Amino acid sequence: MTELKIAEEKLGAMVRIPTVSKHEHEDLSQFYRFHQELERLFPLIHEKLEKTVLNGTLLYRWEGADQKKLPILFMGHQDVVPASDEGWSVPAYSGAVKDGCLYGRGTLDCKGTMYVQLQAVEELLGEGFVPPCDVYLEYSINEETGGDGAAAAMRHLRDRGIRFAFVLDEGGAVIDEAVPGMDKPYAVVGVTEKGYMDVKITARGKGGHSSTPPRNTPAARLFAFANEIERKRPFKKVLIPEVQEMLRQMAPAFSFPLRFLLGNLWLTKLLVVAAMPMVSPFGEALMATTCCFTQMKGSDAANVIPKEPYLIANLRCSVHQNCEESLNVLKKYGKKYDLEFEVLLRRDASPVSDIHSAAYCFVEKTIRAHFPDAGVAPYLIMGGTDCRHFHALTDTALRFAPIRMTNAQNSSCHAVDENVTIAALAEGVRFFKRLLKDYA
Ligand SMILES: [Zn+2]
């Protein structure tokens, strides 16, 4: 069977089991069905690797030649976000093939990543290859809902005193046009992820009938506050070294004047910091905490002044101005409007992996060798991945799946018609084989 046919059949089979994200106490039967399917698809892994199941989360250990060498960890997740067939051009869990692409929920996020890792290990086992150090594989069941799966796996490993030379999770990929206007694909390697915070902001008042409204009603105070935050964008704008390196690496792919501006940050940094937020929301998100007002509640009737209307703000906090500090900025502005703040959900930005470490340089070198037409750049993840838990066990936690995708495919994650190019899967399998063979 050709590598394309194998990818199509195995990932297709993985996608056909709808492993929608679950918490540990919920019905995990689809996940256990999925585990059985993995046993059928990757028999050598299940014969030769040590497997631990922690409430559905999968952990494998492949014993390496040198037990004194720090292990490495490849990871991803088994769960997917729900999908109905509505809007899809094929049924959402069909694993149907169209024009060389495999369609279905999870093909990219994240069963495609799982597949390239598992298939590489399976093939290497078939070749009698022994890895230079222990290799671990980890796949949680609730990455998409921020559940405890990956954290539990991390604690399990930590309790056994295990640390990793590096960790490779999903998050970055080889993207055709990572930023509009780029003239070549870029492999982006996530080295940190922003924090996340939901804040409920309440204004209190006496309520009453809306026919004789006083000034400064609670709703108006909330709106004035939201307006001021959106206009002033009061969060600290900093180009951290890793983002500077990202811009420097990407500069050649742009035409003048961006090429010059980003390629000469030693000269243009102040200008870039000042101009980028005005040019693009993405540019701003790379440099600062962002705050978006997403939900609101007033009174229950059109003619009643609300007593305690509220807004929900969703913040993505920067490494240099983490959740606590960002919240304080909001509170400072909230004072003059007499507002109350309550944090509903909070997760700090992760530490930043060192892009000058031996492990990062090795992964980067392997990417350059495997994807010679692509640029490589570190990257700041705006969403969340399971990888954040593993900063506790390594100095180099990276988010990169060696899968080529178009911008449209990248945006199909969590959306309709999620799909992956089958040839890109085969290329990804070869990447992991190369990585393991080169890691001596
Ligand atoms: Zn994912």
Q: What is the number of strand segments?
A: 17
The total count of helices amounts to 14
Q: What is the second-level CATH architecture of the largest domain?
A: 3-Layer(aba) Sandwich
Mean of residue pLDDT values: 95
Spatial ordering of strands, largest sheet: 1-2-6-3-7-15
Q: Characteristics of this structure?
A:
440 residues, Aminopeptidase, Alpha-Beta Plaits, 2 domains, six-stranded mixed beta sheet, 14 helices, globular, binds zinc ion
Explain what you see.
- The chain has two domains: 3-177 and 350-438, Aminopeptidase; 192-347, Alpha-Beta Plaits.
- 36% of the residues lie in helices and 21% in strands.
- The chain is built from 14 helices and 17 strands.
- The protein has helices spanning 3-15, 29-41, 43-48, 111-126, 149-159, 218-232, 241-250, 258-263, 265-279, 281-287, 323-334, 358-370, 407-411, 422-438; strands at residues 50-54, 57-62, 72-77, 97-98, 101-103, 135-140, 166-169, 174-175, 186-193, 195-203, 290-297, 310-317, 339-347, 375-381, 397-399, 404-405, 419-421.
- Zinc ion binds at residues 77, 109-110, 143, 170.
